[in-house]
Input
Amino acid sequence: MPPSTSRDTDSLAGLANPRSLRAHWQAELIRLRETHWGPVDDADVVRRVRQLDTDLPTRILTRAGLLAQRDNLPPLIDGWRRSAQAILAVLFVLALLSGVGVAMGALGDGSRPVNVLWALGALLGLHALTFLLWLISFLFPASAVTGLGRVWLWATRKLARGPDGALVPQALLNLLARAGALRWLFGTVSNVLWLTALCAALATLLVLLSTASFRFVWATTLLAPDTFVWLTQAIGWLPAHLGFPMPDADVIRASDGTQTLAANAQARWSWWLIGVVVVYGIVPRLLAAALCVFNTRRALGALRINPALAGFAPLRDRLEPPAQSTGIDRPVDPLHEPRVSPPPVLKLSGQPVLLGLELPADLAWPPAGVPASIHVAGNLDTREERNRVLDALAQAGASRLVIACDARQTPDRGTLSLIAELAAHAQHTGVWLIMAALPASAPAPAETHRAELHVADSRTADSHHAAPSRAALWRERLLALGLPQDAILQTSTAPLTWLQADHG
Output
């Protein structure tokens, strides 16, 4: 049975940073698991959380963190995050290649003139359409938003394996939707990918226009030359005010493919095209990406647990203390003064602990001669007594713990489960198998050993012969539980010696 270190309430509270996305992610994942497959066994976790002096949302987050650690859920979250980052990296590579390909296709190989309208449409047409659709999407709910962000999430969900693995992205999706960050996160992914593609296209344009010669022309059958002049100047008005050169009207009219223009005129067409890509492509995407990142961080920073949410509401009565002090309103009059005082709170303080587990009345408990350095925690015979000792152990684990059991009884599943739960709060755990009635006074070691060997309390021949066989069954079950063989004690002196042993 693995040793357990003492629990510190500060370290428990550290599992539940109210501003941590991971803490809220784990809480939503636990909520979905319990919604799909029912409540989990969390008695020990709840007992530890109730020791915290904090509010209910932090208790819910702490419980989720402890359950996630116990059920090994953090590796699933980390694995999904790595897969999501890998898919995002692939999308960035595809965006880079797309930008390079679009720029090379818009300019061609230089053997033919470049139609400025076709080049402009190839570079900014799809970008303008998707950007307009993204702006229109604000008229619809965030769950209906589509785009590269949702494509990314869809690809990550396809890689999830197993029931818990499939719930990891779903938990994140629910969390972001409730926080109002879903639209902004998807917008961040989409706009950053488009920004990457446009920057790659711009870099390709700069390289090609700097190392090759291109001729820019316009061609139209229906429109008059003056219409094309007006259109070119209208598109280039804003880039021109930001410092990008623009061809004048004469150069635009002369770019009909029938005249040969000077190199200076071709350079002005090049800067016009570059300015249009920067002003109408890169700048809007950069501003949109910055806005999405800002709103995503703000929404995630405002994450809060809603205790009234389905799955969290039943935890209120279990995680909060049964009674909280609200101060003294007025002195209690003698007529209504309570006559029954609550049981004292156990203070173990990490010392050795000796306790009995459902010992019958014929076994005198506690045994005589227990040193003062050993805390006797009584005989756990009711649920209240068990919870009282478990609460004390959860607050300050025992350095050594001996659990006395009646070896004449058959070890059932509930008893073994309670032994395992008690042992989780001690660094070292031993089980004392009592096979005879304990003497009322402190005996000599030799007499005690002789009394236990001959089974002083043998009322019938059947019970006399049953004790060794049940002790062997106890030993078999305890070894299967993970208890070391030298921690199974059967003499009255061995438990006290074992509790006081110094293992450094």
